Batch of 2 targets.
Target 1
Amino acid sequence: MDLFWQQLINGLSLGALYALIAVGYTVVYGIVQLINFAHGEIFMVGAFGAFATWVVMGSPKEMSWQMAVFGLLPAMIVGGMIVSVSMALLTERLAYRPLRDAPRLAPLITAIGISVFLQEFVRLFFGDIPGMPDAKRAIPFPTVIGITGQSLHFGNVTVQISAIFTIGALAACTIFLWFYVNRTKTGRAMVATSQDPDTARLMGINVDRVIMSAFAVGAALAAIAGVAHGLRYGNIDFRMGFLAGLKAFTAAVLGGIGNINGAVVGGLVLGVVESMATTFIPGQFGSPAWKDVWAFVLLILVLVFRPQGLLGAKVVDRA
Amino acid sequence: MTFAGQPLPPRPRKVVYAGMARTFQNIRLFHNMTALENVMVGRYCRTKTNAIDAVFRLPRHRREEREATERSRELLAFVGLEKKADTLSRNLPYGDQRRLEIARALATDPKLLLLDEPTAGMNPQETREAEDLIFRIRDLGLAVLVIEHDMRFIFNLCDRVYCLVRGEVLVEGAGDVVQNDPRVIEAYIGKPTDLEGEPTDA
Amino acid sequence: MSRLTTALTIPREKLEKFQTAAHIGGVVAAVLGIVSVLVPWSYAHEPLDDVAYGGAPSPLQFNYLGLTVIALVLFAAPLVFRKPSKVRDWVAWNTGARFAGYGLLATGFVAVAAIGIESGGLINVDPGGWIALVAGVVGAVSGLLLLGSPDPSMGKIKTHSIVQIFAIAGGLAAVLFAAAFALGLSGPGAFLFYLTFAGSLALVLVRTGVFGWFAKCAADNKKIMVLAAFFVAFVFPFTQNGSDANMSIATQVLIFAATALGLNIVVGLVGLLDLGYIAFLGAGAFTSAVLSGSLYSHLNWHPPFIVTVLISGCVASLLGLIIGTPTLRVSGDYLAIVTLAFGEIFRITMNNLDGSDGPNITNGSNGINNVPELNLFGFNFGKPHVMLGIEIGRFANYFWLMLLVLAVIMVVFVNLNRSRIGRGWVAIREDELAAEAMGVNTFGLKILAFAGGAFLAGLAGAVKAHYDISVTPDQYVFLESAFLLAAVVLGGMGTVMGVLVGATILKLLPEKLRFFSDYRLMLFGLLLVFMMRFRPEGIIADERRQLEFHAEDEELAESVEEELITYHDHFNPDALTTEDLR
């Protein structure tokens, strides 16, 4: 039974990470019906931004845990957000916006291009920024005293502090998003635009700005996820966005793409399924080497049996 | 729903196969195909060439392509577009696009043709031509169902008129019967409601 | 591109008075260019395969000379023939001259840059190089000042079919010569220079309308054209004198092109984005390797290759069915990401089937090595053979085999496209809902394309396994799928020629320009973005595709309609009945 609780905790923290990224897919899809493949790379860039912030601050190592948790960590998150949000806005402005009326294939291919470009760009040129290490292989993520490597024990169940951070960040972000969407003018404009962009425009909503804020919100959450990823695994690399992005997309579809709550639920469910699969599937196929496969099998099963996702409403294409 | 004694299948494609074809209220041609190709897409459901036939250019492919072309040309001529077979449908004037849609629907060999507001946006001259075309389609021996707001068009054209209000049939009958029915006058002139006429020939 | 040129255009009335000056300027530029090849371009011998001699132009310079002569003719002709006439207006002199001017600038610039970089400084550029650059600047400025000419009408000339056939033969011979020449160049600078030259020349031919005439010849004699093209490809190994390096590149280009062409059915014809296509190639390769009788395969059944190829194709298409059936019912967008996920699943699974995490089929990340050489009807593909006194090596053998596979895929591509099925695909691309409402089996047609595309990839993979000798999971990763997609997008969605061009460029560039290979993926990513932004229909555009990407462009719609009729290049089976029943 301990094993079950342990895997549940592991799954939830992994799922929280997926959920933070999945929100970015879902918000953008809800408004412009675009699968932004490059979002995984926005997450990766956010993590590198947080790392760069730490370097710019003079690579601090020794400090009190209060200083680390309430000073260093927020600074890194903000730094990561600045980088990821500007990157997301840049791609939106330069690559996606000109294609808004193009056939669906065009923005999809563009997204693939951006994704490949960003990965390779970071790999080749991150090390050329003064003070930054070479990014051709994994870079150790800075230690945040009080979080990195620390854990709590409940009986035989171990809970990493980084897991608590991830889940806490997800909870905070969910509450923030709820307020943002339901209580702010921009948020309501987002809802209106997602339902009918043309009418929204006629009602005086600046649709361009709404789309940009959707990209920005997604990127900001992705940056938090980037930091959480760094704390959890202890290192970051240019490839990390690919798989994480795929998983997050799976989570978004699982919850019902376009639905923010769905992304959160989908992320958590996916994380739990993945960690349970490695424990409770017997034999060779239960080995950790297969866990990514099970996640994608889940994606395909969802598409077969409930394409609208767990929380999605059925969409009817009208003639 | 039943059609010609058979229950209608749920998928649009199978409805076409069962013999019911439609046009769209807002024209939905394949804009970057020529007029002829558009009509030939309509022949799709009545041909059987499969990938193997097509790849190896087997006799069935050749025969069906030839037949489909001939039939499509006939239909283009029937609606008066024989000279525009090689024109891209997006380059056709509005009235021709409407007629092309009808030709495309006819290409599926329907028993019943559903026309969704066939005269929307047409001037009186074009409306009269459409009327004439629909009579000629009826003379081919297939049933035509027209949904239309233009009363003069409906009453000139239809053998039987159904007046629908809020999705329910209010009155049914010959044109002049419906026209003089007090309920229709009340519903139609009293408040802004949907009035739809549906004619079928026998 | 068109948007870029529009931005560069200066208002017509302002240009009127510069016309004579521009023509004279162009003539001066062309003469300068001709003079430049008589003077050394470079002090050192290494750059551009040696352009250091005066009075004796190198082979590369002779090519350049050709461009200058064409520029001279194009710029000078309107000065000589001042009156418009039907014959004069066959060719778009001014537009052609403009692009010849740009071409001179591009080649001049690349020459000077290459000499500067490869010999360690611009100090090594001799006067000839500078003259070529000046010729380029003058030519480009003169070209910019020229008013565009009316559309060329060469495509409409009625030509005797014998002349047409000679034109085809000549054109293809030129292509063969150019390919052999390009592969024979040694330095990256020389290769880049030649590529710039060839690109400029092609652009000039297109813009003058000469290419239009050639296209008409080809369209009127389709069968001869296709046979001749294959003949040219077939004799290509004989031009290489047994050079394994070049034949290996050529074979890789063919494998790549064949795979990309299969992908183009899915992406170009149906408009479905398949990002796991490389996994189908991998599935074919692994199947073929397992059945090949390699010592590293754990299966003791070695059917003949013909059977293996078919099994490989079937395995790949079965996988296609498994992931296509659920996703194609939903929406095209999901297909993209599910195929992406499938690519990952495939790689991970091949890695895991190593005996410890799963049954041992693939030896995990080590893959299956020592796949034996193919042996078909007693012909061993691994051994060199002597034909017509020329040694034909291993790579040439596989080159011919791949040529056959490519031909099969081309036939499938073209014949499906021009049939009831192809019409259905276009209808799906344009308006899926209307297509379904007209009785088109949209789901069935999408599945057919998707699984059929997978089958073709499986075929190519089966040959690739033998060619590569070893099959490992990391040869078949997502980035390779993106690379394939880049070839399709660059070349032209929905066209055969486009993909051949795209695949050749993308595969050849990193091979010939080694310094560039580390940046290749980054640049290809960027290429995808730029193509979608500025020329989504690709270098060689399918007319219909072009229209779909430029929905508002009415002029384009008119001209495409005309082209469709001139080249009888549509689904209109009138062309088919006259041609096929002949």
Target 2
Amino acid sequence: MSEYNFAYLDEETKRMIRRAILKALAIPGYQVPFASREMPMPYGWGTGGVQVTAACLIPEDRLKVIDQGADDTTNAVSIRQFFEKTAGVAVTEETARASLIQTRHRIPEMPLTEDQILVYQVPIPEPLRFLEPRETETRKMHALEEYGLMHVKLYEDISRHGTISTAYAYPVRVEGRYVMDPSPIPKFDNPKLSDCPAIQLFGAGREQRIYALPPYSRVVSLDFEDHPFEASKADADCALCGAGDSYLDEVIVDDAGGRIFVCSDTDHCRARRAAGHLGAEGAPYEEADA
Amino acid sequence: MEVQLLSGGFADAPVEGARVFRAVMQAMARPGRIERLEGARPPAPMSVAAGGVALTLCGPDTPVHLAGALDCAELRGWLAFHTGAPVVGREAAVFAFGTWEALLPLSGYAIGTPDYPDRSATLVVEMDRLEAAGMRLTGPGIAGMSALSLPEVTAFRANAARFPLGLDFLFCCGDRLAGLPRTTRVEAG
Amino acid sequence: MYVAVKGGERAIDNAHAWLAEERRGDRDVPELSVAQIREQMTLAVNRVMAEGSLYDPDLSALAIKQARGDLIEAVFLIRAYRTTLPRFGATQPVDTGTMRCERRISATFKDAPGGQVLGPTFDYTHRLLDFALAAEGEGPAPASEAPARAGDVPHVAGFLGREGLIQPEPPVDGVPPDLTRQSMELPASRALRLQALARGDEGFLLGLAYSTQRGYARNHAFVGELRIGAVAVEMEIPELGFTIELGEVVLTECETVNQFTGSKTEPPQFTRGYGLVFGQTERKAIAMALVDRALRWKDLGEEDRGAPAQDEEFVLMHCDNIQATGFLEHIKLPHYVDFQSELELIRKLRREAGEGREAAE
């Protein structure tokens, strides 16, 4: 731990990231350029989230890291170990006990509180990127609030498929101004972005952007009056804890292609089983599961 | 003076800087909320809170404007030693420090460009009094409504009307600090 | 009954242990030393220094050893290390006119002051496997050493410049931007472009440069000059009030002479492209010069032919192999949450399409 500065980054770098975070909070949904540093983990593996977390961490924090909703996925484990080593912070898998949560692709099922910060890892921060590959063009579109291209794309979806065919990284409008990519969370999670008591920070390392949602920001998923946004999930209950309202992963369990559905949020599932809930395929909760 | 110039920084910069930033971030994210900042001991007349902001956010890349009584040799020396931030006129400032009266008029500061609205100044305002009472605040970061003892209403309304361009504010009184981003709508209490 | 898989932590530990074992290979074979890599794999060391943006042959050799010879992985190790280093300041621009040239050739003149110096090049080797090297005997006898030329070696482009035949490159005042300390802003200045190219992936630049030769924004390049050698790195110390020499770095510099431009008001002039890279890295330096030249179409009043090498945003945003490899390889990470949302969507669309067909029948 003594070989590196607290939370790895040098103080000058942290100051630069901190200034970007404050401007991001002041202009919700706008992507603030920042001089992302090379981290000891690859671009695309959470370097943006890691830099934002490093700039925010205090020794009193209790850190939770999830990937796909799970605490023990390999990349989540790797990032958690990085901060245990470089910042010496306490860690937890329990959402309720965490003061700072770094996530890739999910928002925890348990509602967040004012005492928590949620840091998202973002691969492509620009919601218009797949419609217009040029940064020079998309920057103009945001400046002019020219989001027609996005509506055209969504409308073409409807005319081809009868519905908007974006299932994750579903674009949102923040406080009636900036269109924002919520990172590749399933659209099931989109409603949790809005009116959230926690600070939400988004870090894209390779693309050198930081953006933010202050608490209680109004975040609306783009849609049409006759085709309203719908947060969807698999039409099933969790096989382990029986939850009918959490986002589910599909798991193939035998060679014949038999499948069950289980909670993507592993801590949510654990807490429900600890509270006595049991799904069709679940084993009664034991302490060793924790 | 030499001694004062070299002292007054953070004893443990990485850790104290982190705590100060968390407080500043909470203040900026939740307009009306008052946070406490400890650790910095800048020369008078700069407050502990404003000193903490300087130590945590200012560096060689961030030109700073010192308005009114804050533009003194002691503070210039302290800032140069602890942050390396160059002292400039208001037009070029990324951060400006001073009392509300000394900082006025607001027209001189950078408010960003349509392409880069983040390239705008943050004003760090020294206050005689800072309470979660007075003007009524609504907007992002606020559940319903909050209140803050702001020096006036008009300037903040005009600033918010220019969104996404505009200035952002940090108000300091002793070791206490509150934030007001450009998104906040201010009304007389 | 179903029990969810766990154990990410143990899997990682085991993978790391296995990786270390594989890196070492057969323990009956002596271990490679960092010094051996530094001395005998010099071109690999040079590439890692160039794309890693850190001039340190020892660390570069260490990175190659640690990366099991995967040069992009070695570049990554160096990049991650260099960002943690404190910055003391900026040096004076190096003067390649004072280079102690090991190699210096010009394709545009038969001879020039300073001479054609072939140096340690593969150029005229016959690419036949040398089985004598496999025998691991004593190496070849040392090469005979020519007396080093005293004094500076003038740039070939300078001779053309004296006649006004080549477009001048006036010195630019002010501190150039630093790619490693600020985010890329487009359109980029030439200084920023050259920085990005200098640390860009050799393979990517090679392909782009080749495309310009095959007609995608062809600008007909001659190698005006290619030189490789050591130059002094100097820094002005304000406290001392004078400049001190910090040491030397070996650089490869390539200046191309390209097709001329001109107009009714301006007489025709040759144009140029520029490459400057750490170490002996001539393929990279030549490729850099060609791509630099292709990117200058706007400055030189040429038309945009829509060629990849002319597209600044395309080139600069994709030439960094550390960014590219990270993002490419991140698709190995679990994406099952997103995939699940797509699965549900596609099932729903197929269901609705099926219902639509039934209703129609």
